C-alpha cells in the first residue's frame, strides 16, 4: 500500500526527455494522483509534475482544524534542485532555489537557461536573486502567492490545494533607440540588462466535494478519538478488575474469620 503511486520512470512524447528514479538513488517520487496514507510519518513528499518534467517537493508546515473538525496537514511547496543534493537519497540535503531551468522540458529546441519555473511573482526569492535578475514589482504575500496543500493525514486525501506557479523567460534587454530616420535602431553605448520576465502565471485552486469530505470526517474523527476511547475503556476495565479482586479478597478474608470464630465456639462448647 505504501508503494502505490510511486513514479519509477517517465518519458515525454513531445520532447526527448526521460526520467528514472534510479538516477536519484532511491528518492521516492509520487505521481500526485494516488493518495499517500499515514502522513504522520512523511514530513516531506516529492510529487512529480509532468508539465515541468521534474518532481516538486512539498513539506509539512503545520496542522490546522478545517472542514468542521478535521485536523488537516498543511504542506508548502519547495523548489528543490535535485542535481545539487549532497546526499541524493536525502532530500533534506538538496538546496532550495528561487528558480528551476525547465527549458528542455518545454522544447528540445530551446537552449538551456531560457525558461525558468518559479513561485508566483517570485515569492520567497532572496534579495540577491532579485538584484541579479532585476526583479522589480510589488511585494508578494503568502496568502496570495504561496502554493499550499491540505491533506487528511490518515488516508492522505488532498482536501484542498492551491497551486501558484510561474514560468519566466530570461532576456537581455538591449537599450537601443530609434534612429533619426525611424527605419532602424541605433546603439546607445550602454550595456544590455538581463531580466527574468514572467510569461505565464498559474493560479489554480482545487477542492474535494462536500460528500467526500463528510465521509472522511467521520472516519477521521473515529480514528482520532478511537484511540482515546480505547485507552479510557482500558482504564475502566482495569479499575473494575481491581475492584473485583479487592471485593473477592475481602470476602475470602471475612469467610476465614467466620470459620475461625466457629471453630473457637465449638472448642469452647466441648
UniProtKB/TrEMBL annotation:
UniProt-annotated location(s): Membrane
- Tell me which Pfam families the record gives: CD36
| Keyword ATP-binding (UniProt) | no
Q: GO CC annotations?
A: cytoplasm; membrane
Q: Which residues form the signal peptide?
A: none
- What family is reported? Belongs to the CD36 family.
What PANTHER family is this protein classified in?
A: LYSOSOME MEMBRANE PROTEIN 2, SCAVENGER RECEPTOR CLASS B TYPE-1 SR-B1
Identify this protein by name: Uncharacterized protein
Amino acid at each position: 500500500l505504501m508503494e502505490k503511486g510511486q513514479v519509477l520512470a517517465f518519458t515525454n512524447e513531445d520532447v526527448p526527455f526521460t526520467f528514472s528514479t534510479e538516477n536519484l538513488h532511491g528518492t521516492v517520487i509520487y505521481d500526485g494522483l494516488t493518495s499517500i496514507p499515514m502522513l504522520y510519518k512523511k514530513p516531506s513528499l516529492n510529487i512529480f509534475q509532468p508539465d515541468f518534467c521534474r518532481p516538486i517537493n512539498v513539506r509539512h508546515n503545520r496542522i490546522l482544524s478545517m472542514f468542521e473538525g478535521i485536523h488537516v496537514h498543511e504542506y508548502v511547496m519547495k523548489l528543490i534542485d535535485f542535481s545539487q543534493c549532497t546526499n541524493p537519497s536525502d532530500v533534506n540535503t538538496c538546496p532550495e532555489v528561487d528558480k528551476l531551468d525547465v527549458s528542455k522540458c518545454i522544447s528540445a529546441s530551446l537552449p538551456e537557461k531560457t525558461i525558468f519555473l518559479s513561485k508566483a511573482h517570485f515569492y520567497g526569492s532572496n534579495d540577491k536573486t532579485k538584484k541579479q535578475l532585476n526583479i522589480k514589482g510589488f511585494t508578494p504575500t503568502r496568502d496570495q502567492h504561496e502554493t499550499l496543500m491540505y491533506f487528511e493525514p490518515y488516508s492522505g486525501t488532498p482536501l484542498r490545494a492551491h497551486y501558484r506557479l510561474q514560468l519566466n523567460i530570461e532576456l537581455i534587454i538591449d537599450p537601443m533607440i530609434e534612429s533619426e530616420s525611424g527605419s532602424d535602431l541605433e546603439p546607445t553605448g550602454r550595456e544590455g540588462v538581463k531580466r527574468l520576465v514572467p510569461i505565464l502565471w498559474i493560479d489554480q485552486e482545487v477542492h474535494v466535494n462536500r460528500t467526500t469530505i463528510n465521509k472522511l470526517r467521520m472516519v477521521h474523527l473515529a480514528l482520532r478519538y478511537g484511540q482515546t476511547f480505547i485507552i479510557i475503556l482500558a482504564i475502566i476495565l482495569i479499575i473494575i478488575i481491581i475492584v473485583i479482586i479487592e471485593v473477592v479478597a475481602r470476602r475470602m478474608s471475612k469467610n476465614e474469620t467466620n470459620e475461625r470464630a466457629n471453630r473457637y465456639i465449638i472448642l469452647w462448647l466441648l
